[in-house]
Design a protein that fits this description.
This protein has two helices and nine strands. It is an alpha+beta fold and 139 residues long.
């Protein structure tokens, strides 16, 4: 069972990487940067383990306003929105390799301390997500 879960996570990340390569070819407008993290789990101390899925670093005090759970098929298929909620979660701490830093580097993972409205909603998304689904926080 553990190997199946590991394989599923690897396949999910490969699908995200494939989508990211396609996204990198899409022109971006600097005036409206959308920052996105993939939320993996909540640690016992309340920090949220995330991967920076944005095209740039994400600084402290960034406010996430949208929480969504999506299903992405393997390969290059369209994603399906399962659930979305409005939130107001601010990054108050970024823990990166046992150090506190001021910005989460693009493409890296970290444990974030978040404050604001929507923590309970984030927990519900993570606990209720179906197999093959991913939880994202967006600005």
């Amino acid at each position: 069972m553990q190997r199946d879960l590991f394989s599923e996570v690897v396949e999910g990340f490969e699908a995200l990487a494939s989508q990211r390569r396609a996204d990198d070819m899409t022109p971006r407008h600097e005036a409206s940067p959308n920052l996105q993290v993939f939320a993996d789990r909540v640690l016992r101390d309340g920090r949220v383990v995330v991967v920076n899925h944005a095209s740039r670093d994400i600084p402290l005090n960034t406010v996430f306003t949208r929480l969504s759970t999506v299903r992405r098929p393997l390969g290059n298929g369209p994603q399906t929105l399962i659930r979305a909620d409005a939130i107001q979660l601010t990054i108050t701490e970024i823990h990166f390799f046992r150090h506190m830093i001021d910005a989460l580097p693009k493409g890296h993972n970290a444990a974030l301390r978040l404050a604001g409205v929507g923590l309970d909603c984030l927990l519900a998304h993570l606990q209720d997500k179906p197999v093959g689904a991913f939880v994202f926080l967006d600005t």
